[in-house]
């Protein structure tokens, strides 16, 4: 199975203000792609399986997200205990 490992290291100064880190994955997909997010307790399709009125401009994931079209599926996993070399 084809695989690409990306390792991110973040060095930052302590800060008591609210902060966020966003990592974009611009994945190309065919027409009508389907996105699934692993949220606590379920797999969710943004805009379809979420509570009306909740955020649609960003999403947090538990362990992975997947983008599928009629030919391919790309899964991006976010393990919590992985050491990069």
Main β-sheet, spatial strand arrangement: 2-1-3-4
What do the pLDDT scores average to?
84
Please mark out the parts with pLDDT under 50 across 5 or more consecutive residues, or reply none. none
Structural class: mainly beta
Task: Spell the H/E element sequence.
Answer: EEEE
> What overall geometry do the principal axes of the alpha carbons give?
globular
Helicity, as a percent range: under 10%
- How much is the radius of gyration in Å? 15 Å
Main sheet attributes: strand count, strand direction, barrel closure: 4 strands, antiparallel
The fraction of residues assigned to DSSP E strands is 15-25%
Instruction: Give the beta-strand count.
Output: 4
Distance between the termini: 21 Å
Describe the secondary-structure layout.
Layout (H helix, E strand, L loop, with lengths): L33 E6 L2 E3 L19 E5 L4 E5 L8
Antiparallel strand pairs: 1-2, 1-3, 3-4
């Amino acid at each position: 199975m084809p695989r690409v490992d990306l390792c991110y290291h973040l060095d930052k100064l302590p800060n008591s203000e609210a902060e966020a880190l966003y990592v974009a994955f611009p994945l190309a997909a065919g027409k009508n792609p389907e996105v699934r997010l692993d949220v606590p307790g379920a797999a969710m399709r943004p805009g379809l399986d979420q509570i009306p009125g909740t955020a649609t401009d960003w999403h947090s994931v538990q362990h992975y997200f997947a983008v599928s079209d009629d030919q391919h599926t790309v899964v991006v996993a976010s393990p919590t205990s992985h050491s990069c070399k």
